[in-house]
Write a sequence for this structure.
């Protein structure tokens, strides 16, 4: 049995779904953030697989940019989480409802 | 293309991803994320993207997961309830599951992906020189923008993590 593009795209979709439901259903802001990273990883896997099976390089170069964006995003996001924790002493997103009402 | 390494690595990646999402302990979740990243790097090697595999391990495993572990250590938090979502996020999850299921069913049921060439393309392994050439010709403007974005992110982190005086504190 050979491994084609189908299998890679399926795995990428699976990773994306796992991350997506992690974002929707978890309460801890840090775990939500990890799930976001997982969604980014899934998209990079799809890009690399498409690029490999079509014999082009554009997808691989885009993964470069995604890695840079992810690094910047993690730095800013974790700084925001630390600042939130300093203000409210919690990172549970159901208690961070200061904008409500 | 070899089948067994692919299935082993994809089992590692997906299993560790599930463990990361479902785990109660945040540190364990971070290490599951690390395992998932290593599996993904192995998949990149199977796809002949050696440079990207090395970069993924360096950037994600070396920097991002380490940062996560540091923050968890710094904040000293409890893991929290695993699956007690609020009603609205549960409703959103049900709607999202329906939409995603429909999309995946159409994509894989009608073999939309298989319209691409099934066999490996003959492009060969992209060399480091080729990456450099692409980054400095075709993608020169995105590289500049990314560099500027990284600078802005660094400044933003410094501003955000500055300790404010209590007088400015709204709460």
């Amino acid at each position: 049995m050979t491994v084609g593009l189908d299998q890679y795209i399926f795995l990428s979709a699976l990773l994306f779904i796992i991350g997506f439901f992690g974002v929707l259903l978890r309460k801890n802001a840090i775990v939500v953030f990890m799930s976001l990273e997982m969604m980014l990883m899934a998209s990079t896997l799809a890009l690399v697989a498409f690029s490999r099976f079509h014999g082009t390089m554009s997808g691989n170069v885009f993964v470069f940019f995604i890695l840079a964006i992810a690094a910047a995003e993690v730095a800013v996001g974790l700084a925001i989480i630390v600042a939130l924790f300093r203000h409210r002493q919690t990172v549970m997103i159901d208690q961070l409802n200061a904008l409500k009402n | 293309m070899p089948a067994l390494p692919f299935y082993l690595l994809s089992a590692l990646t997906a299993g560790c991803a599930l463990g990361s999402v479902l785990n109660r302990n945040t540190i364990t979740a971070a290490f599951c994320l690390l395992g998932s990243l290593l599996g993904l790097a192995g998949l990149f090697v199977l796809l002949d993207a050696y440079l990207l595999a090395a970069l993924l391990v360096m950037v994600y495993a070396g920097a991002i997961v380490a940062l996560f572990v540091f923050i968890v250590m710094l904040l000293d938090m409890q893991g929290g309830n695993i699956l007690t979502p609020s009603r609205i996020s549960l409703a959103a999850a049900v709607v999202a599951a329906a939409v995603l299921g429909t999309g995946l069913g159409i994509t894989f049921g009608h073999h939309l992906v298989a319209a691409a060439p099934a066999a490996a393309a003959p492009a060969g392994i992209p060399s480091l020189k080729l990456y450099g050439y692409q980054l400095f010709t075709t993608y020169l403007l995105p590289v500049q923008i990314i560099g500027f974005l990284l600078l802005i992110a660094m400044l933003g982190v410094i501003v955000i993590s500055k300790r404010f005086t209590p007088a400015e504190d709204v709460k």
